[in-house]
Predict the 3D structure of the following.
Amino acid sequence: MSDYLTQKQAASKGIVTKQMEDVLKCESISKDDLLERLANGSVAIPANKNHKSIVGAGVGKGLTTKVNVNLGVSADKCSFESEMKKAEFAIKYKADAVMDLSVSGDTQGFRTRLVEKLPIMIGTVPIYDTLIRTQKQVKDITIDDWFETVEIHAKDGIDFVTIHAGLNQKCIESLRTNKRQTGVVSRGGSILAEWMIKNEKENPFYEHFDRLLEICRKFDVCISLGDGLRPGAIKDSTDGPQIQELITLGELTKVAWERDVQVMIEGPGHVPLNEIEMNMKLQKKLCHNAPFYVLGPLVTDIAPGYDHITSAIGGALAAMHGADFLCYVTPAEHLRLPEADDVKEGIMAARIAAHAADIAIGLPGAVDIDHKMGTYRKELDWEGQFACAIDPEKARKYRESSMPKKTDEDVCTMCGDFCAVKRSNSLFDNCEE
């Protein structure tokens, strides 16, 4: 494949790239279906041509639901070594992507280190880095400053960038007429809103969208069209500003596809259970079946410390109704920068949600591992169960912490002699057919 062909261009020409071959090896999709969906935009393979270590992964229609890990330093906790440990956890616990959301320190040095070390998709939010790189107040940032940062990230090998291009002046007006409980909770969205209001100008990424597309096409960077107005409380879910932005994202998606740039759409946010299906179907309709990347959604606002659970509940339902990519949420959400153990909890919760959704939609092969687990449980085969477990390390640790008596090691200490499985086996396995 020529360096000048994006994954979307290659698919349109019937060319199977190395990254497409990677996807075909681990997914149940056919080559023809993959090429067709990449060409029409319903599947994306974020893979910057400068990310040499990447193993291609697809996001979208007919593929397994993917999971993203957010990491990155803040001014209060600026340890890139700690963040590298989180990145290592992302690989160890089988996340599909990492987003570097660093807002302090040597961001470029850390970013290039991630690109060098990680074989999975890497995303960033260049809006944050513009403030760090220029050391300017938001009002004083120039249009060139914004786009120069995007190009730096693209050259560094970043596979997908979150750009809040849909938060235009219409959305600002919608915010003024539709009062929200929590306002703008997206960091990138709030920065752009401040720039637009203080300078009385249009969103530079919306007004100069073609300039953004030129950069992304050159390096084959997938644009993750950010939901700057995602709801930050369930009271704000599916309100006017959220939908106004979503309509604009759908319009921008078609423009990007015409330039052979891959697109994902970012979505909510805090959404009650009864509105999740509607949100997913609305996004797919308005954004022409582009891959949908959701944060959660969190289905209740009252569980700080347990938001990996509220997120997993929402994520499973969202993926069952069309979401393709789940951004994990950790127990530290809303409270502090997550630690490495929080990262693991967040990954596992999101992976469980993703797998549950893949089973629910009947994705070929998704349920096979569950059927294996059922067989091993019937046989009281503990090693088989550990091999099937999403976290075999934790499963083994729990069992070994409380073993049954030596004379009955095939059961567990929950039931012991009252083990229903063992009793059923003795009752029915020897019955004549």
